[in-house]
Structures are given as structure tokens and as C-alpha cells.
Amino acid sequence: MAITAQDVNRLRQETGAGMMDCKKALTEANGDFEAAKDILRKAGQKIASKRADNATSEGIVLTQVNAEGTVGKVVALACETEPVSKVEDFKNLANAVLAAAVASNSTSKEDLLATPQADGRSLNDHITDLMGKIGEKIDVAAYETINAEKVVAYNHSNGKLGVLVGLTNTGGTEVSEVGKDVAMQIAAMKPIAVDKDGVDANTIQREIEIGKEQARQEGKPEEMLEKIAQGKLNKFYKESTLLNQEFVKDPSVTIAKLLDNTSKGMTVTEFKRIAIG
């Protein structure tokens, strides 16, 4: 049957696919709109399969904290190239991913991808559809949640970095402001843990061995290596664990001291730092 421009435009409006892809799908489906939609979806699945191993180093990171300030979500929607990350359809999909995370309160990425959308199809189906339309791999690269007495979020201006920080004992009046400072500290300084107790044993052992070897190369006596390595480990804690880091805006205080000065006993319970690229 003859495929009209109106038919093509209607399918395009319903699916968001390109004009030529819609015309090809309608032609293949002999004008059957539902069959044409299935053809377009299968095209997305083919793209997904073909590009499954491709790197996704571009995209968008979004955060949201609930009205009570007690639950925070951060999601990262990744793609292969920067131009795609700026396409309106991709931005809309990123917002849909965040909205699904908030609405469903999913406990894992897998649960999030299975979340039904308004049309009854899963979030993953919608991601696959856009892959077919754009021709690139698209993936929810990260999904994290924080529950705390007070959750503060920070989004970097490039749209590719988001931080959530959970606080407790938040009795002061400047909690949100200080929480934002701490979140920005996390964004800039990339701590690996809240405190030294959160550093895994393998990392500690590796730092000790590196410290010993450095001291050995400097000609230090063998019996001094352990003590020297412990000193280097303490320096590592100060540089790499959040509460022990010097506050970027005022190096005379640590993050732990900054928080305690704001509200006695206030501290960080956990944080999430998600970056793309």
C-alpha cells in the first residue's frame, strides 16, 4: 500500500524516530502502524546488541533530594559522544530516569530499569528505543541513594558530576550551606571514604607496602621502614578520607572540625560521588 507523508509524520510523532526510519518501517510493515513500531523497537535492540561493548564516556549526572531533605538520589545516564549528550531527547530521557528513581525508590539499577513508564513499557525499553533512534549505546551508568537525617546534593556546572552527602546531628542553622561546602569538597578532592575506618584492608596494606618501598629506595634502615610507612599511611588518611581532609576554603580546619563547629557532633554518615568521563 502507498505510504503517505501524513502516515510517516504520525509514526514519527508517536515514536520520535527519524523520518526515513519511519518511512522504511511503514513500508516494511505494509502500512501497519503497530508492526512498524515493533520494527523500530527491534532496530533499537540491534543497536544495543551491536554496540554493547562500546565505551560510554559522555552523558548527564542528575541529583534530587526529597522535600524533607532525608532521601537523595543520583543517576548517571551515559552515551558515547558529547553531541548526543546535548540532544533534547537524551536530556528528557535522563530526567525520566531520575523521575523513575524517585517515584519507584528502586533498590538497584536492575529494578530501576524494569520500572514501568506511562505507556506500560519499562524504562529499559525506552532507553533501547532511543538507542535505535540515535545509533549510540546509552546506559544508566550509575544509580545511588542516600538516606540520612539531612541529605545535601551538589551538581557540578558541566553536568557530568553529582554528589550526595548524608549528615547527622544537624542542629545548627547553617547546615545546608555547610553541607553544600562539604559536597563541593567531595567533588573536588575525591575522598575514597568518610573516615579512615572506611578504607578497605587491601588499600591500607598497599599504601604500607608502597611507603616501605619508598623509604627503602631512599636508603632508610630496614628496622625503620614500618614506622616510616605508618607515617605515610597517616598522611594518606589526611589526603584521602573526607573527615580528615583540610577544608579547601579554610585549610586551618579539617572537614570534621568544620562540621563540629557548625553543630556539635555533626558528621558525615556517607557520601556518593558520581562522575562521567
UniProtKB/TrEMBL annotation:
Q: What is its main location?
A: cytoplasm
Q: Which InterPro entries did the record assign?
A: EF-Ts_dimer_sf, Transl_elong_EFTs/EF1B, Transl_elong_EFTs/EF1B_dimer, Transl_elong_Ts_CS, UBA-like_sf
Give the GO molecular function terms: translation elongation factor activity
Query: Which keywords annotate this record?
Result: Cytoplasm, Elongation factor, Protein biosynthesis
Q: Does the keyword Protein biosynthesis apply?
A: yes
Pfam families the record matches: EF_TS
Source organism: Nibribacter koreensis
Briefly, what is this protein's role? Associates with the EF-Tu.GDP complex and induces the exchange of GDP to GTP. It remains bound to the aminoacyl-tRNA.EF-Tu.GTP complex up to the GTP hydrolysis stage on the ribosome.
Q: Does the keyword Protein biosynthesis apply?
A: yes
The protein, known as: Elongation factor Ts
Superkingdom of source: Bacteria
Q: Where in the cell is it found?
A: Cytoplasm
Q: Which residues does the UniProt record annotate as the domain Translation elongation factor EFTs/EF1B dimerisation?
A: 73-277
What family, per the record?
Belongs to the EF-Ts family.
